[in-house]
Specification:
With about 425 residues, the chain is mainly α. Among the domains are: about 120 residues, Serine Threonine Protein Phosphatase 5, Tetratricopeptide repeat (Alpha Horseshoe), CATH 1.25.40; about 80 residues, no CATH class. It has 21 helices and no strands. The termini are far apart.
């Protein structure tokens, strides 16, 4: 048995004197093994005894342990009972946790009125999670009448306690206010403060603001700096998929925008290889534009050796994510590349691009019609000896489909060549 630390001896002296706060803290230290000998059983016993004696912190901590199931077997019914005991004593986290149970209808019939009341009591005591939750409810108009000023006030209170999720939501409100033409100074101050605290969403907003140059002087260097910070987020640390998805997309957008700056050398030294790296990373997320740009770099051989197979894969992914130009790019490859050439696929993709209003699609179809017709004419002149029956049939079918489509009324006027 190891020697007791001075810290443990001091806590045990206070516990012996009946100090329940010290008993709670000692119990947590034993569970975590911080500064004292790790002993989960002893730690839980100390917490349970303090909770039984009415110590609200101990009741809430035990509730958390029964709720998440990391230290003890998960038992949300026990968690709710312990949270309730803490809440009845006015414990801010106990109030928040009971409110969450009422809001979601866990181990108690859903009672939005009780939930809102408890969230309000907890928020008034400074619980950042309650402030954030109420702020989001007022922001979305769920269970309460939508009230953006009230939502922002609550979210700013939570943000002042460095709650990153609250900063994200407050940032959404400020972004919308800027788009609506409101005075941007308050938003700029918030974004600057939140960015100093490491908030990735604030960095992204500042990057976009400096890139666009509408409310501040355009500064590509500062834009790149903020995009780098916004892209440096490990979303694997976010447990809930519904929370992770918007962050994934924002990280991908930051990577895409930073990649564009590297591609064209704006605010940073031009580096096509770095641009490809960023586009490819962003393309791992469900982001159509990032997938398209990665495909374009591989198609043109910019920053990487040309690789049409890889370009086609990126373009297909982009097309599946409804990128308007991806189908056109694919159609062009299938029309031109001697290895991947497939007139049937090319016509299908280009016709769809034209229907979607993609510029130059109809012009490209006309060029393809002339190209296919010329090849058919050559084959005809040579008694069809220079092509297989399948190839001739494919070209003839493609020409016919193009002719039928371009004979229809164009969706929109073609731009000048």
């Amino acid at each position: 048995m190891g020697r007791k630390s001075n810290k443990q001896i001091e806590f045990e002296r206070k516990v012996a004197a009946g100090d329940l706060n010290a008993q709670c803290e000692l119990g947590l230290l034993h569970i975590d093994g911080e500064g004292v000998r790790k002993d989960v059983i002893k730690g839980l016993a100390l917490l349970a005894d303090a909770a039984e004696k009415g110590h609200a912190d101990s009741q809430n901590y035990l509730g958390v342990m029964h709720s998440d199931g990391k230290v003890v077997e998960r038992d949300t019914a026990k968690a709710f009972a312990l949270y309730m005991k803490a809440a009845e004593q006015g414990h801010l986290w106990g109030q928040h946790n009971v409110a969450s149970f009422y809001l979601h209808g866990e181990h108690a019939e859903r009672d939005v009125t009780k939930a809102l009341s408890l969230f309000g009591l907890s928020a008034a005591q400074g619980c950042y999670a309650a402030q954030r939750t109420l702020g989001i409810l007022y922001m979305d108009g769920r269970y309460v009448e939508k009230d953006i000023p009230k939502a922002l006030s609550l979210l700013l209170q939570a943000s002042a306690q460095d709650d990153q999720a609250a900063m994200d939501k407050a940032g959404e409100i400020y972004d919308e206010a800027i788009q609506q033409g409101d005075d941007p100074q308050e938003a700029l101050q918030f974004f600057a403060t939140a960015a100093e605290k490491g908030n990735a969403r604030a960095h992204f907003s500042l990057g976009r603001i400096y890139q666009e140059g509408k409310i501040v002087g355009q500064d590509y260097s500062k834009a790149a700096e903020h995009y780098k910070a916004a892209a440096d987020v490990n979303t694997a640390d976010i447990k809930e998929q519904w929370e992770r998805k918007p962050v994934d997309l924002r990280v991908a957008e930051a990577q895409l925008r930073l990649g564009m700056l590297y591609r064209f050398g704006k605010g940073v030294e031009q580096d096509l290889g770095k641009a490809v790296e960023l586009f490819t990373a962003a393309a791992q997320k469900p982001h159509g534009e990032a997938k398209f740009m990665a495909g374009q770099m591989y198609q043109l051989g910019l920053g990487v050796p040309q690789d049409l197979d890889r370009a086609v894969r990126f373009y297909h992914d982009a097309d599946e994510h409804d990128h308007p130009q991806a189908g056109y790019a694919l159609g062009d490859i299938y029309a031109e590349d001697t290895i991947l050439q497939n007139y049937s696929k090319a016509v299908t993709l280009l016709v769809q691009a034209d229907k979607n209003g993609v510029p130059n699609s109809r012009k490209r179809l006309k060029e393809l019609y002339l190209d296919v017709s010329a090849k058919l004419a050559v084959s005809f002149a040579n008694d069809f000896k220079n092509a297989s029956e399948d190839a001739i049939a494919n070209m003839a079918s493609a020409a016919k489909r193009i002719l039928i489509h371009i004979s229809s009324k164009p969706r929109a006027p073609e731009p000048d060549a």
